[in-house]
Write a structure and sequence with these properties.
mainly alpha, two-stranded antiparallel ribbon, globular
């Protein structure tokens, strides 16, 4: 049906429509003479209907609504509360996109929008949404990525805006559909979740015990999948806005305190990632330079730890520590004390990395994102090849003891809270999925792949490791000599990959810190350099005095997981259930048990001595 035909049909039905961007609050009906009479809506009835049909209405963000004056032009309310308190009439909407706004008795009919219409609708109104939902002017302009919790979100939002029609009539809405297939979405989630935790997984399995570790991995995977999916459900119930992340949902449904808490713990995740990456980069840089130096000068092999299994060419650094050798005593190689793993290399790394943190744009580093997939595949192949060469190495006693839950199992629980963590950006990633009805299925498949990957890297390495299991390091590459061919390749690939990722993580952390202090994007270059200097200094201090990546990961996971994984998804879902009238005592008890798990997980970390 063409536009003229649709317009004629609208006249015959006695309705006059114009373009709008959201759930209608103003409705005009016109008789045969063309005169319009405003239909006042009862406030309680209006709210009740919006809550009933919340799948397609942004009930809590009146920011995407507008009042219609006599001329049919819209004016944006100053605040959400002003929008809710104005006299409610229903304005004119395009009949080709929003048919049947009135029932026969003159009341508002529930809207059933096609998914692409809602997607385009919220995209056009994104700036109004943010103006009203956020009281923080700093969110108005934070650069390419500042409005989102992750630079990926900024990329998706820019892609959406670039597809919109300049005339804004929204007739060609098909172009605004998400273009990413389910397969791409699944592997995007898989690639985003996996990270440095892969290197620590065999150590975590040793800390928990073999069979208990498998059970714990499966349990934490299921729990994290459950809470991540709850965030997607809450987002859908709230209207599915393209700029609505966890922070925005927390503010809209729980209040400003929840949004502030979410931001604080988001900073915690980013800071923990910066520190862990710095420790790993220092390790990889130290060993790579030593290998290059020894190869060029043809020097004999020398290691900071002296224990060497000649049959398998493996190292057990813990043996030196058990013999009373401090890790700082022999933390250098043929280059001497000037190239010390714990005393000087983190500082040299700072001189190398710091200039790249002050670039005006992070676009250059995003071009190397594909290295993440390369590094993951390389690690899987590395573990598979090494394990195949060793074979299974567990004797009868070790198999019998494999069922015992070790008292240090909370170490693995804390690590897994970060290993399966994607909750702060899961909404942004899944919005790009072409078939939104398959989000639950695709997210489940992605988490299954992540779990399988951790099992392959962690369980297989643990079973086949030929030395005593207590020798497994929190960075599995520390069990190999610096001149081992595959290990050299792994360290070089990971070093370059982390070197390109670190500026992006530091950029996100800096942006969140600055926008929390300044209420507008008016900080100068000196302030940016100062924040970067503080971040790098913190990372250097940790790499010198607490160079244990496993400890950093488990504490970061337990702290951030308490809020993002266990608490916020549960509270948000309970609020939604209450507003929809589906809440029960059983549901309240069930969802309040989830945050309790996070509290126990965090407290237990302080009673574990992992080294």
């Amino acid at each position: 049906m063409d536009k003229s035909a649709r317009k004629g049909q609208s006249k015959r039905e006695g309705l006059n429509y114009s373009n709008s961007e959201s759930t209608p609050l103003l409705l005009s009906s016109s008789g045969s003479s063309g005169s319009q009479a405003n239909v006042q809506l009862d406030e309680t009835d209006r709210n009740h209907r919006i809550l009933r049909h919340s799948e397609t209405s942004d009930f809590d963000s009146s920011s995407v609504t507008s009042s219609i004056n006599a001329s049919g032009k819209s004016s944006k309310p100053t605040t959400r509360y002003e929008a809710l308190n104005r006299p409610k009439t229903v304005g004119t909407y395009g009949s080709n996109k929003f048919p049947g706004l009135l029932t026969k008795d003159g009341r508002v009919a529930p809207l059933k929008l096609p998914p692409h219409a809602l997607h385009a609708d919220l995209g056009r109104e994104a700036k109004y949404y943010y103006d009203i939902e956020s009281d923080d002017p700093a969110t108005d302009d934070q650069g390419d990525y500042g409005k989102n919790e992750n630079f990926v979100g900024g990329f998706f939002m820019q892609s959406l805006q670039s597809q919109e029609h300049e005339d804004g009539d929204g007739d060609d809405l098909d172009d605004l559909k998400p273009k990413q297939s389910s397969l791409v979405t699944i592997f995007s989630v898989w690639n985003t979740i996996l990270g440095s935790s892969m290197l620590t997984m065999p150590w975590g399995i040793y800390m928990a015990g073999f069979v208990p570790a498998i059970i714990l991995i499966l349990t934490m995977s299921a729990l994290c999948l459950f809470t991540a999916y709850k965030l997607l459900q809450v987002h859908k119930y709230h209207g599915g806005g393209t700029k609505t992340g966890v922070m925005e949902l927390s503010k809209a449904l729980l209040g400003g305190w929840a949004a502030t808490t979410a931001k604080i713990f988001s900073v915690t995740v980013l800071l923990g990632a910066n520190i862990a990456y710095w420790i790993l980069m220092s390790n990889f840089l130290y060993n790579s330079v030593n290998f290059l130096y020894d190869t060029i000068l043809n020097l004999p092999l020398m290691n900071a730890v002296t224990f060497n299994n000649s049959e398998f060419n493996l190292l057990c650094p813990k043996d030196d520590m058990l013999n009373g050798t401090d890790m700082y005593e022999n933390s250098f190689d043929n280059l001497g004390p000037v190239w010390d793993l714990y005393k000087t290399v983190p500082i040299f790394l700072a001189l190398l990395v710091f200039p790249f943190l002050n670039f005006n744009t992070t676009t250059f580093f995003t071009k190397f994102n594909s290295l993440g997939t390369v590094a993951i595949v390389y690690l899987i192949v590395f573990v598979a090849v090494k394990s195949a060469s060793w074979g299974v190495n567990m004797n009868k006693i070790e198999w019998e003891d494999s069922w015992i839950l070790r008292p240090t199992f909370p170490v693995l629980a804390g690590m897994l809270s970060l290993s399966f963590f994607i909750h702060n950006i899961i909404i942004t990633i899944m919005q790009s999925n072409r078939n939104q009805s398959k989000n639950g299925r695709d997210l489940t498949i992605a988490y299954a792949l992540v779990t399988i990957t951790y099992i392959i890297v962690g369980i297989v390495f643990y079973i086949c490791f030929p030395l005593a299991k207590r020798c497994i390091e929190d960075n599995l590459l520390n069990n190999f000599h610096k001149n081992d061919g595959l290990t050299v390749g792994a360290r070089v690939v990971l070093l370059f990959q982390l070197f390109t990722v670190y500026p992006l993580i530091a950029y996100m952390l800096r942006t969140q810190l600055l926008t929390s202090v300044f209420k507008a994007n008016n900080y100068n270059r000196g302030m940016i350099i100062l924040v970067n200097l503080v971040i790098v200094t913190i990372c250097v201090l940790f790499a010198i005095f607490l160079p244990h990546v496993g400890t950093i990961i488990r504490y970061t996971g337990a702290i951030s997981g308490l809020i993002y994984v266990f608490t916020l998804p549960s509270l948000l879902h309970l609020v939604v259930s209450y507003r929809r009238g589906t809440i029960t005592v059983y549901k309240v008890l069930l969802y309040l048990c989830v945050p309790l798990i996070g509290v126990i997980n965090l407290i237990s970390q302080f009673f574990i001595q992992a080294y």
